[in-house]
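Box 3.1. Reading complex inputs
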Amino acid sequence: MLNRAPEPKSAKLSGRAKSRSRKPAQRREPLSLGVLDGHLGYFLRRIQVWVFQDFLRTLSRLDVRPAQYSVLAVIEANPGLSQSDLADLLGIERARLARMLDRLEKRGLAERRPSPRDRRSHALYLSREGQKALKRIKVLAGQHEANLAEKLGPEKRRVMIELLRDFGR
Amino acid sequence: MLNRAPEPKSAKLSGRAKSRSRKPAQRREPLSLGVLDGHLGYFLRRIQVWVFQDFLRTLSRLDVRPAQYSVLAVIEANPGLSQSDLADLLGIERARLARMLDRLEKRGLAERRPSPRDRRSHALYLSREGQKALKRIKVLAGQHEANLAEKLGPEKRRVMIELLRDFGR
C-alpha cells in the first residue's frame, strides 16, 4: 500500500529492474505475458487495482469508498433525482444502492424525501452536512486524480477519458 | 447478467432511451455525472465491471475466473517460473496466489516442482490436463475479447491496449 511513497518519479521500471539485479543469473529471459498481452481486460484490471488502492490511500482519513463518492457526487449534481435513475446512471444494482443510501442517511450525509412527481419513489438530496463532507472529499479525490495523471501521464489520461466516456451509455 | 442476449447491436442507447420514453415528463433535463465526469477512475470502473461480467458469462461453462486464467496463461508462457516472479508480474498478493495455486493443483491443472536453481522456491508448470484446459479456455477468452472489441469499437480497443501496456511495469 505504501509503494508510491519513497519511489523516484522516473523509476517506473525499478521494481522489475531491482529483482533482475538481485538475482541476475536466475532467469535467462524476461517474463512474458503470453496470451494476456492481447487482452484489454487484463490491462484494465491492472490499472483498476492501482486506482482503487490509491483512492483508498489518498482518502483514508475521510472514510469514503469510490462507490459512495460516486453516489454523493451524482446526487449533488442532480438534486431530487430518483433512486432508480441514480442506479441506472451509475450502473449499480438497486439493492446495493438501497443499502448504500441507508448508510449515507445514517451518517447524516444524504436524505430521501417523498418525490413530488411519483409517490412510489423518493427524491434524493444531500444534507447540509453531506454538502460539506463532499466538499472535503472532492479535494482529496482531486489529489487522487492528480496521482493517476502523474502515474499514467496527463496526455494518456485525457485520451482515455475521451475513449471511455460513452462506454455503456 | 443476460442483458447482452436479446439486445440489437445498434441499441447501445436503448436503456436510457427506453426509460426516457416510459416516463417522458418526469425529468426535465438529462442527468449529469457532476465531478465524476473528470475522473478517469470512474470510467475505468464502469468498463471493468462490464469486462468482468462478460468474462464470467462467456466462460461460464468452464468454471474459470479472470485471475485464474491469468495465472494459467503466464505459467504456460514461462514454464518453470517461480511463485514470486509470477506474483510480481501479475501484481497478485503472494498469499492469494498461493491459495489460487493450491486450487489449480487440486484440480490437476498446475504443478509445483522443486526449483533446480533455488531450493527455497518452486518451479511452476501446467500439467498435460492444464494445457488442454487452457486451450479450451483461450477459445472462449478470445470470444470474450471479441465481445469487448464489438462493444468498445476495435480501434478504441487497440489504442487502449497501447496506452495501458506499460502501466505499473
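In summary: Chain B touches chain A through 64 residues (CB under 8 Å).
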